[in-house]
Amino acid sequence: MKIPQSPKSFLELFNIIGVERFQTIISRSSEIGLKGDYLHWNDLRRRPAPEDITHDEWWLLIKMAREAKLRAIPLKDKIGQPFKYALPDRLLEQLHTIDRGLGSAWNLPEAVTNPATRNEYVVSSLIQESITSSQLEGAVTTREVAKEMLRSGRPPLDTSERMILNNYRTMQRIMDLRDQPLSPELLFELHLRVTENTLEKPDAAGRFRRADEIIRVMDLEGPVYHEPPAAAELPERLAAMCAFANGNTPDFFIHPVIRAIILHFWLAYDHPFVDGNGRTARALFYWAMLHRGFRLFEFISISQILLKAPSQYALSFLHTETDGNDLTYFIVHQAEVIQRAVGALHDYVDQKTASLKAVEKYLRGLSDLNHRQQSLLAHALRHPDTRYTIEGHKSSNGVAYQTARTDLLDLAERGLLVTSKTGKALVFRTVSDLQEKLSGLATLPVQLGEDTATLPLGLKVTSKG
């Protein structure tokens, strides 16, 4: 990936354009501004310029309009110049969408709000984020293998699997840390957790890089994209980052999503660790979102979106650094990522809800199950932690003890319930993959025209065709 071309400074542009020409074009500033896009010079120079305007003149007018709206934050570059950001209309629209998507305006289905089933959604999100965040940093494994490791609990077999396991455990830990203020100790803990047993220097986990550990961000072809501040500055810079994260600075309001995005950039810019900075930056971003009350973010995976276009992720950093520390490029890109991740959550929940409804509807067509068994399985799909007993089933349905016993034992024989004993009482629980088993049945083709179709588990469905 090539480093984007840096724009000319204001002084260079004025020298090229001249005072007389500037006075001529300044009246057209409102006419030729960019609507919607927040383009970097490297992209703008490739677009057709407005009529009778050069690209340099176009850029000067755009930059003048932007500069008037930029606000400085406590983060400073290596020479002490502040980073700044603006609030273009596109970003305001993105923030509004994110607020609606993660706020109370979205009525979550019971499957997510129900404590008995929400864990499935949280675990699914944690697994997805753990895998894709590690893949962004070079982990090489398939999702299927990684999911099998995390769900089964087996030990990791290589460094890639260890990275994924570390990320998974770190994300779980963030849930416990979300109400704590950011401190150096908390950040070091996050770094230690994401890098444990994955670094070439094992002692580098959970500490600042030292002066003799030269860190540069570069690719295999050799271009250096970023050289972070000196190691000696890191304690002071981290103190400033903690103050910002905890809302102590600056003295004006910053939208919580923007504050979380800036923290993501801040840690990546400072690159305070020998390795694992990207994973730690994304973990810090999650902490910030949860800390600021976006509790639905535990269901969100941003890295799966970033992984689809990693070059755009990298370019958003470079655009900021090559255009006068204008953080708006990075903020707009990350806001779009969050917006897409929120949309993916909505789609996932809608899909799971539709699947659950389809399975419940399908249960009513299984001729080998009586209505009591169908009702119990429908309840179990929504409340998977429920324990069922023969006495309870008997009382709920007003049937004889033997009838209730036959119902439950039959479901156990079909592999839909598992049995255990509490004292002398027989206890029945649903299998962990009940919905998957029933979904598999529900998607099997049934040939219309026949009265019944024989299915696995000894079930039959009555054709409605």
Number of alpha- plus pi-helical segments: 20
Helix and strand run: HHHHEEHHHHHHEEHHHHHHHEHHEEHEE
- Low-pLDDT ranges: 445-455
Mean pLDDT: 88
* Radius of gyration over all CA atoms, rounded: 28 Å
Give me the oligomer status: single chain
Sheet of most strands = 3 strands, antiparallel
Whole-number total of structural domains:
3
Number of strands: 9
Short description:
The protein has 465 residues and is mainly alpha-helical.
Explained architecture:
The protein has 465 residues and is mainly alpha-helical. It has three domains: 10-67, no CATH class; 71-350, Fic-like fold, CATH 1.10.3290; 364-462, Winged helix-like DNA-binding domain superfamily/Winged helix DNA-binding domain (Arc Repressor Mutant, subunit A). Helices cover 54% and strands 8% of the residues. The chain has 20 helices and nine strands. A three-stranded antiparallel β-sheet has the order 5-7-6. A two-stranded antiparallel ribbon has the order 1-2. Helix 12 crosses helix 16. It is elongated. The N and C termini lie far apart (57 Å). 33% of the residues are buried. Mean pLDDT is 88; it is low at 445-455.
